[in-house]
Specification:
Elements: E1 4-5, E2 16-21, E3 28-32, E4 34-42, H1 47-61, E5 64-70, E6 85-93, E7 106-109, H2 112-118, E8 127-131, H3 137-142, E9 159-163, H4 165-172, H5 180-184, H6 187-198, H7 204-213, H8 218-237, E10 243-247, E11 259-263, H9 264-279, E12 283-287, H10 294-300, E13 308-312, H11 316-328, E14 332-337, H12 339-355, E15 359-365, H13 382-387, E16 397-398, H14 405-420, E17 423-429, H15 430-434, E18 436-440, E19 460-461, E20 467-468, H16 511-526, E21 535-536, E22 543-548, H17 552-564, E23 570-574, E24 576-578, H18 584-589, E25 593-598, H19 603-612, E26 617-620, H20 629-641
Parallel strand pairs: 3-10, 4-7, 7-8, 8-9, 12-13, 12-14, 14-15, 15-17, 16-17, 22-23, 22-25, 25-26
Antiparallel strand pairs: 1-2, 2-3, 4-6, 5-6, 11-18, 16-24, 19-20, 21-23
Helix pairs in contact: 1-6, 4-6, 6-8, 7-8, 9-10, 9-14, 11-12, 17-20
Length: 642
């Protein structure tokens, strides 16, 4: 069969770059450079699983991708209601991308609530696939529809595809000994099959996954596979879908290497395991389950073969207490939590500051205050990480910028903790934790050497010539104290929260000694070696946009848009928030205007203004969702023109 390719169209948000027309009445195949798909439905409709499987097949195909899962905090929110809508957005492309996308090109809506909750995000001309079986009078009234939007013309600006997903799924599974309710549960697989046909996604991985997932229930596995294949065949045969789409692999977007799709929490867990191996230390996690950090506990519990020990404690305080005890015993110690848990752990973090032991405190930030928005994202724990302890208790702070970067951030946090004998705060967030992207698996020779030397004998000679061990005698370069493992003969020493005497570690209430120890602990953190901040400024701009953490993707996408439109703007992004890079002050002074976008009310901007006396301008959002690139581009354009 031959094909003829038309002249490529311009690269717009429509993303059409070419079209193949097949002879003999076969369906057309259009080539796109990128697509944004959002699966949306009830919390029980399996939208997260559907999105995850589509993502996995897209990753195996070789596209660059970025995802945004979005779901309620309730285990099972009220069926058919707006608060109960769960969605999964996937942006995939044949080139390098940075965000899950601003507006979906395709919405799969499993019920009226899903349509109403998401239709406002769609651009005109977007594809909408709806499960017509759920558009009953009662379901429409439940979400405030006075008339059926599928019939009243309100969706005329979109390419609407009404599909009776439930009916088709039940019909496809009638040969299986399943009740109607059991058969209906597979409608998400029918939808996945249809979308897999539309976008030429591989199918083998999903079928293998279903066989594995339901290995103990082979009849359920076969039913789901049958529904998946039925969805594919429906797309191939129905006249309603006259066109399918191809998005070529992103061959030029990635350096040579072996890649896999990875979420932020999974990358962080792998980073922690890798850090323990590179340090030649057992990894201990003391944790209490909390959204959105629990996946790290779940993942690390699978890796006992790497010397990982996980302890699910009865509460947050017990979790960090056990971790600090493990640090005292010579482990690479970690505790994972979110903002409410950090508040409970604050006294023990301060104890770790006083004891000067390595401890990783992983905070997967979420919307607050208090319980707040457990499943939504935010960057509002920065000031808590900096100052949320009694007394002068400085703690280094590190923040990853993408899901895959969580791996490297974990290694960096471990380097600082082990080298400088200090607790370290690692600030990820829900957007990074649950989002995913391709990750190049590093070669072993690329990984840092994190091995440490434990104290093995006396390190100080008294005036009378006696050799003794002083637990607070410091390395002159790092100001780190020795790490002495309990039970080592001759290295017995006191620990506890009361102030120590310099050198000996004896309890001391001497004012001058306390002043010295406070300043020394601060100097140790201030002296941590971190790389200089790099500035992307190809055109000598007057305006700098400065970000940290997960705002990297939206900021970079916005900067690209502005530069493509002929604007001049510089960009810099912080990984190290305490201490700041040495050159940061000099960099900030080079620009007339500094704009700091944050998913809080201006916490980094407050620190920047206080430390460097720079009139940093905040651009803030606290709605539980990441920035959109277009939104940031508009704000930055206004800053440039102001």
């Amino acid at each position: 069969m031959t094909s003829q390719v038309s002249s490529p169209a311009e690269h717009t948000d429509g993303t059409v770059v070419g079209e193949q027309r097949k002879p003999g009445g076969a369906k057309d195949v259009r080539r796109l450079d990128r697509v944004i798909i959002r699966f949306a439905g009830d919390s029980g409709d399996g939208m997260q699983l559907t999105g995850d499987r589509f993502t996995s097949e897209t990753a195996s195909f070789g596209n660059d991708l970025s995802t945004l899962p979005n779901f309620p905090a309730e285990i099972r929110a009220p069926a058919g209601t707006l608060p109960g809508v769960s969605s999964f957005q996937l942006h995939f492309a044949d080139h390098d991308i940075l965000t899950p996308g601003d507006a979906p090109n395709v919405l799969v809506a499993m019920n009226p609530a899903a349509l109403k909750a998401n239709v406002g995000d769609l651009p005109r001309g977007a594809e909408i696939i709806v499960n017509t079986d759920e558009f009953t009078k009662r379901a429409l009234q439940k979400v405030g529809y006075d008339t059926d939007p599928l019939q009243d013309g309100s969706l005329d600006g979109y390419n609407l595809h009404p599909v009776p997903l439930t009916t088709l799924t039940v019909e496809a599974l009638k040969e299986f000994a399943l009740s109607r309710k059991e058969a209906e549960r597979s409608k998400n697989m029918f939808a996945l099959g249809l979308l897999s046909w539309m976008y030429h996604r591989p199918t083998e991985g999903t079928e293998k996954f279903l066989k594995s997932k339901f290995a103990k229930k082979p009849d359920i596995a076969e039913a789901n596979i049958a529904a998946f294949r039925a969805g594919w065949n429906f797309g191939e045969t129905t006249e309603d879908f006259a066109v399918s789409y191809e998005v070529a692999p992103a061959a030029k977007a990635f350096p040579v290497g072996t890649y896999r799709n990875i979420s932020g929490n999974l990358a962080l867990a792998y980073g922690l395991v890798t850090a323990s191996q590179q340090a030649d230390l057992p990894l201990f996690l003391g944790s209490y389950p909390i959204t959105p950090a629990s996946d790290i506990l779940h993942e690390l519990s699978k890796h006992k073969n790497f010397g990982v020990r996980t302890f699910q404690a009865e509460d947050e305080i017990a979790g960090i207490g056990a971790a600090l005890g493990a640090a005292f015993g010579g482990s690479l110690a970690v505790t994972t939590t979110s903002g409410p848990g950090v508040a409970l752990k604050s006294e023990t973090i301060a104890l770790a500051v006083s004891l000067e032991l390595p401890l990783l405190v992983v905070d997967i930030q979420r919307g607050g205050p208090s319980t707040g928005l457990p499943t939504k994202t935010e960057q509002a724990d920065l000031l808590q990480a900096m100052f949320g302890r009694n007394g002068e208790a400085p703690v280094p702070v590190v923040a990853p910028q993408t899901p895959a970067d969580c791996f490297d951030a974990a290694l960096e946090a471990a380097r600082i903790a082990l080298t400088y004998r200090t607790p370290v705060m690692l600030l990820s967030d829900g957007y990074l934790a649950n989002g995913s992207e391709p990750w190049r698996i590093p070669d072993l020779d690329e990984l840092p050497d994190l091995r440490v030397q434990f104290a093995s004998g006396p390190n100080h000679t008294l005036a009378d010539g006696t050799e003794v061990f002083w637990p607070y005698k410091r390395d002159p370069k790092t100001l780190a104290r020795p790490w002495a493992i309990p039970g080592t003969p001759g290295l017995e020493h006191r620990i506890g929260g009361i102030e120590k005497q310099d050198g000996t570690g004896n309890i001391s209430y001497d004012p001058a000694n306390h002043d010295f120890m406070v300043r020394t602990r601060q100097a140790k953190v201030d002296g941590i070696e971190v790389p200089d901040i790099e500035v992307d400024d190809p055109h000598g701009a007057r305006t700098l946009v400065l970000g940290w953490g997960s705002t990297y993707g939206p900021i970079t996408a916005a900067v690209r848009r502005l530069r493509a439109a002929g604007e001049s703007i510089a960009q810099a992004h912080l990984r190290h928030l305490n201490p700041f890079p040495r050159n940061l002050g000099k960099v900030l002074q080079q620009y007339d205007k500094v704009v700091v976008p944050e998913m809080n009310l201006g916490q980094l901007a407050t620190l920047i203004r206080a430390k460097y006396l720079v009139d940093a301008h905040s651009y803030n959002q606290v709605n539980g969702m990441p920035f959109k690139a277009e939104q940031l581009a508009t704000a930055l354009k206004e800053a440039i023109d102001d």
